[in-house]
Amino acid sequence: MQDINKSFDIPLHDIKPIVDIQEYSLYIFLGISLVVLLIILGISYLIYKRIKARNAFNIRAEHFKIINSLDFSDTKNAAYTITSLGLTFRNDSQRHSEMYDNIAQRLEAYKYKKEVDEFDSEVIGYIEVYKGMIDV
Predict the structure, then answer these.
(1) What is the spatial distance between Cα 114 and Cα 52, in angstroms, rounded to a whole number?
(2) Does residue 43 belong to any structural domain of this protein?
(3) Residue 57 CA from chain centroid, whole number
(4) pTM for this one?
(5) Domain count, the chain
(6) Do residues 118 and 124 touch, judged by C-beta distance below 8 A?
(7) Structural domain containing residue 88
(8) 20 in a structural domain
(9) CA-to-CA distance for 26 and 32, rounded, in angstroms?
(10) pLDDT in tens, 27-46
(11) Is residue 67 part of a domain?
(12) Signed CA dihedral, 63, 65, 66, 68: sign only
């Protein structure tokens, strides 16, 4: 029984003690993962902005398209449409504002009556000049 109480603290000569090794691979992995995640998010954001800008509704382009496709045979409807949609381009410059006021004044004769005549050539000329001034 004496052997059981014997101490096991035998000095070992060939085995070296445990040494702490500085291991940074987890931090390097987390850093690289963070950088890759930021790059992916940045690219995703740029793609989203590009798609959104491409599909964005441009009210000026739509109004310009409607004004260009107006049927002058329906005089009353054309007068109302040009007056209402022309406001979109009125504040582009002082020249646009003056031209819009001139056209709106000339179209008054075609708006508030039950039956109206066709546009005269002068009014059609002013409308065409105004359409030519519009930049979309």
Answers:
(1) 45
(2) no
(3) 9
(4) 0.60
(5) 1
(6) no
(7) 59-133
(8) no
(9) 10
(10) 999 999 999 999 999 999 99
(11) yes
(12) positive
